Amino acid sequence: RDLGGIDTADMGRIMGNAIAAKVDTLVSAELANLTAQESLGVNLLDELYKAIGTIRGAGETGPLNCVVSAAAYQGFMSVIGSSAFAGGETQNAAMRSGFIGMVAGVPCYVSSYLNDTNTQLTNTKFAVFSQDALRMAMQGGVSVEVERRAAAVGNDIVASAAFGIDTLDATRGIIVQDAV
Question: What are phi and psi of 60, to 5 degrees?
Answer without folding.
Answer: -80, 125
